[in-house]
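anyone seen this seq b4? input:
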Amino acid sequence: MQQQILASCKAGNAEVYYLIAVFWNTVTWMWKEQILESRKAGNAIDAIAQQLKLKTHQVLGEWTKIYLVAQFLRTGT
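predicted toks r here
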């Protein structure tokens, strides 16, 4: 899947930009900000989950979405 996304990005495929927008919009805004700031501060996923009263896999899933969007923006444009 990731290789398909990268190939589409290099080809300028509009569907990929839509996919990135969907990923980004599925992250709850409040969680996105708090997770991003906590990771920047060096906090572990487990600690962030406890702070937000979420399960570890929920925080990891949201962090993965944030990371994939950032990776795309760094390499896909």
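The mean pLDDT is 77. Residues 2-75 form one domain. kinda curious what u guys think
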